[in-house]
Structures are given as C-alpha cells and as structure tokens.
C-alpha cells in the first residue's frame, strides 16, 4: 500500500500546460490594462467635488470624503488585485498547478469594484 503523500502526481499533458501558461499571460496583460483603466476612472472622479459649489444638497451629494474614499478604494483594489494575480500565477507555475483562474478572479474583482465605485460616484454627483 502506498499513501497519498508518497504517490507521485500524474503529470498534466504538455499541450494543456502551454495553453494554461499562454492564457495566464494574456489574462495578466488584460488585468494590468484593466487596472490602468480603473485607476484612470478613479482619478477622474476626484474632480466631481469641484463642480458642487455651495448649496443645500441632501444625503451624500457632493460629499468629498465619500468620493475620496471611493477613489482611493478603487485604486487600491485595482493595484492589489493585479499584484496578487501576478504573484499567485508565479507561485502556481512553480507548483505546477493551473494558473488561469487567478487573473480571471482579479478581472472580476476590478470590474465589480469599478461598478460599485461608479454607482457611488453617480450618487455623489449633483
């Protein structure tokens, strides 16, 4: 009897390894470019409070603090998701595991963060 710890893993086919590496690299490039788009969008939101002026606005309309938190949050999420995706792809390549799902997860997180940030910025704009 052999234990599960001492039994060798069955190797993945070479074609799947090449496809996985190429897909991961392409998805990482897409994630990095999406991060730049998210950062550009977040910095564009900073100018919204300049258009507010002084007036009786209700709720969070023209709230610079909320807009600043949204801007910084979007930038941090985009940068962190991209760097974590790159790091986990490298680690999983070293461990010889599938890697394509890490950039996909980073892309989904950035899209959700951009959508939520845009929704909040839309509520702040008068």
Automatic annotation (TrEMBL):
<keyword id="KW-0812">Transmembrane</keyword>
<feature type="transmembrane region" description="Helical">
    <location>
        <begin position="100"/>
        <end position="125"/>
    </location>
</feature>
<feature type="transmembrane region" description="Helical">
    <location>
        <begin position="21"/>
        <end position="45"/>
    </location>
</feature>
<keyword id="KW-1133">Transmembrane helix</keyword>
<feature type="transmembrane region" description="Helical">
    <location>
        <begin position="65"/>
        <end position="93"/>
    </location>
</feature>
<keyword id="KW-0472">Membrane</keyword>
<protein>
    <submittedName>
        <fullName>Uncharacterized protein</fullName>
    </submittedName>
</protein>
